[in-house]
Amino acid sequence: MAGTLTPLPESRLGSTLRRDSWWAEIVPVFVLLGGFGLYATWRAFEGNYYSWGPYLSPFYSPLIDPQHHWWPYSPALLILLGPLGFRATCYYYRKAYYRAFFLDPPACAVGEFKRKYWGETSFPFILQNAHRYFFYLAVLFLCFLWYDAVRSFSFDGQFGIGVGSLVLTLNVTLLSFYTFSCHSLRHLAGGKVDCFSCATFGRSRFEAWRISTFLNERHMLFAWSSLISVGFADFYVRMVACGAFHDLRLL
Ligand code: FES
């Protein structure tokens, strides 16, 4: 049976036929991502309270030239591009911040600004294509963060466990899930392959693709949980380092 055609409202910012609270999805993104951006920027420039005992803030790892022999500013600024570039070019975050910050569009089937749309085919957004290279860099950063997590269990050469050890270990675990659920890795494992059994290392590639697909389906969850954990890990180290509270030794 033929349905009745409903004319779409004039396309302008926010116009829509949707009756649900479509804006409820972008408000938390705006608050959380915006809040994290402000906090991380302040901490990166602060250049202080980034380590205590065996703990090192993930915002400052790897720690380069902390004595300021040749770099007069905060050591975090030397390494900022790696994690920032990885998150900023992430396929999931792109969707999230295009909607929440650029309102481009604010949500599916919701009107946006009228303008020529070039997508990611021209400068500056064409740079988003560098995501795969940031992925390689992120794996390198993970090595440093795992080293920091292991080191956080060593108190004056003795094995011990503090709350900070658990915070740093949980953080790097979530960051690993986030990194290894990346779309680029899934494409590396199984992209451009029509037939796994015919491809070189087909069996291994299929297994890698299968695992990365499992993780990739949860990429949004890992993106948010790792964002919160990395912010909290830095906050924890800062609070302990500045003496606002004491690290609790569990063992
Ligand atoms: Fe999100 Fe690669 S797609 S980290």
Give short descriptive properties of this protein.
mainly alpha; binds FE2/S2 (inorganic) cluster; two-stranded antiparallel sheet
Description:
By secondary structure, the protein is mostly helical. It has nine helices and four strands, in the order H-E-E-H-H-H-H-E-E-H-H-H-H. Helix 1 packs across helix 4, helix 5 runs antiparallel to helix 6 and helix 7 packs antiparallel against helix 8. The protein is globular, with a radius of gyration of 22 Å. The model has no long low-confidence stretch (mean pLDDT 93). Bound molecules: FE2/S2 (inorganic) cluster. The site of FE2/S2 (inorganic) cluster (FES) has 9 residues, from helix 4, helix 5 and helix 7. FE2/S2 (inorganic) cluster binds next to helix 4, helix 5 and helix 7.
Q: Over all CA atoms, what is the radius of gyration?
A: 22 Å
Topology as H/E string? Answer: HEEHHHHEEHHHH
Distance from first to last alpha carbon: 72 Å
Main pleated-sheet profile = 2 strands, antiparallel
Tell how many strands the DSSP assignment holds: 4
Low-confidence stretches: none
What average pLDDT do the residues reach? 93
Q: Which class of secondary structure composition applies to the elements?
A: mainly alpha
Shape: globular
